[in-house]
Design a protein that fits this description.
Strand order of the largest sheet: 3-5-4
Shape: globular
Number of helices: 15
Strand content: 5-15%
Distance between the termini: 33 Å
Length: 304
C-alpha cells in the first residue's frame, strides 16, 4: 500500500476531532508522552524527538519482520540502512545508539548462521517498555474506539506485540507520518524536547479549560529547561519559532504567560487525531492476528 492509502483521511481526522471524548483522550495521551520522555534519558541525549520516538520501533519492526520473511532481521547493517533511508539518524549515530542500547539491556546479541552479520534481538526489558507505552495510548483511546479495550487486553501477548510492531513499521516505511496533517509541528519534532514542551504548556491549562487550552497558561522557562534537561536558550528558541509559526503567543508583564493560538490548537488536534487513527489501524490488524479473525475496519465510538 502507498502512504496515501495508509494515511488517515482528512474526513476521518475531522470526525474524530468532533468526538466528545477527544479532548480527554488528547490530555491523557499528552500526559503519557511527557512522563515517558522523562524516563528515556539515554535516547533523549542522542536523538531528536522524532528519531527518539521511532528508533526503537524501527528496531522491533526489523526484528519481527525477519522472524517470518526470511529477511536478515535486526542486524546492525539493516538498522543502519533503514535509519538512513528514513532520515532518522546517520549510520555512525545508529551504531553508537545500538551499542548503548545493548549496554542498557535493551538489545542483546542473537545467534546468526551468517557470522558476517551482527544479529541483535530485543530483550524482555525493551518489549515491556513498549507494551507499557502502547497500553497508555490504548487507555487514552478507549472512549474513542470500540476496539480499544480489546487492544489493551491483548497488548502484552507476544502474538499481538509482533503483529502490532510489524503493522506500525510497515506503514511508517511506506511513508505514513502523523505530522502530515500538521506540518507546522514538524520543526518541533526535529528538536530535542520540542513536542513534549508544547504538550507541557498545553497541560498547564486551568481546571475546567479544554485541551488544548484556549486561555493563557503560566510559563516558566526555567522549569521547562529543568524538567526536560535542556538549556534556557533552547526553550526560548522553541518558543520564538512557535510564535513565528503563529502556534502560540507570549504575554504577561514579563512574558510569563503563553496562549495557544487557534492555529496551534488546530495543529495539536490534527496530529493527535492522526496518531490515534494510525494506532487503531495497526492495532486492528494485530488483533486480527491475535484472534485469528480477519482485520476489522477502524471505527470510532458513536459521538452521541
Amino acid at each position: 500500500m502507498s502512504a496515501s492509502q495508509l494515511t488517515p483521511s482528512p474526513d476521518a481526522v475531522a470526525a474524530l476531532r468532533r468526538h466528545p471524548g477527544f479532548s480527554r483522550a488528547m490530555r491523557s495521551s499528552a500526559e503519557g508522552a511527557v512522563a515517558i520522555y522523562r524516563t528515556n534519558r539515554l535516547l533523549n541525549l542522542l536523538l531528536s524527538d522524532r528519531a527518539r520516538a521511532l528508533f526503537t520501533h524501527v528496531a522491533l519492526y526489523l526484528h519481527f519482520r525477519g522472524t517470518d520473511s526470511g529477511q536478515p532481521g535486526l542486524t546492525v547493517g539493516a538498522m543502519k540502512d533503514l535509519c538512513t533511508e528514513l532520515g532518522l539518524c546517520s549510520r555512525g549515530r545508529c551504531e553508537a545508539l545500538l551499542a548503548l542500547m545493548r549496554a542498557a539491556g535493551l538489545l542483546t546479541a542473537a545467534p546468526n548462521p551468517d557470522r558476517r552479520k551482527r544479529l541483535l534481538a530485543p530483550t524482555e526489558k525493551l518489549l515491556a517498555l513498549h507494551q507499557a507505552r502502547w497500553a497508555r495510548q490504548f487507555e487514552a483511546m478507549c472512549s474513542l474506539f470500540p476496539g480499544a479495550a480489546d487492544y489493551l487486553a491483548a497488548v502484552n501477548d507476544p502474538v499481538f506485540t509482533k503483529a502490532f510492531a510489524i503493522a506500525l513499521g510497515r506503514r511508517f516505511v511506506a511513508g505514513l507520518r502523523v505530522l502530515d496533517n500538521a506540518p507546522d509541528l514538524e520543526p518541533f519534532a526535529e528538536r530535542k524536547a520540542g513536542v513534549v514542551i508544547l504538550f507541557s504548556l498545553a497541560l498547564s491549562g486551568v481546571e475546567g479549560d479544554a485541551f488544548p487550552p484556549a486561555r493563557p497558561v503560566q510559563l516558566s522557562i526555567n522549569a521547562l529547561a529543568r524538567n526536560f534537561s535542556v538549556s534556557r536558550k533552547h526553550v526560548l528558541s522553541l518558543l520564538r519559532d512557535a510564535e513565528d509559526k503563529h502556534l502560540l503567543m507570549r504575554s504577561g508583564a514579563v512574558s510569563n504567560e503563553v496562549t495557544l493560538l487557534p492555529h496551534g490548537r488546530d495543529a495539536l488536534e490534527k496530529m493527535l487525531a492522526t496518531m490515534f487513527l494510525y494506532l487503531a489501524q495497526c492495532a486492528d490488524e494485530a488483533l486480527g492476528a491475535y484472534t485469528g479473525s480477519a482485520e476489522p475496519s477502524v471505527r470510532t465510538a458513536t459521538a452521541g
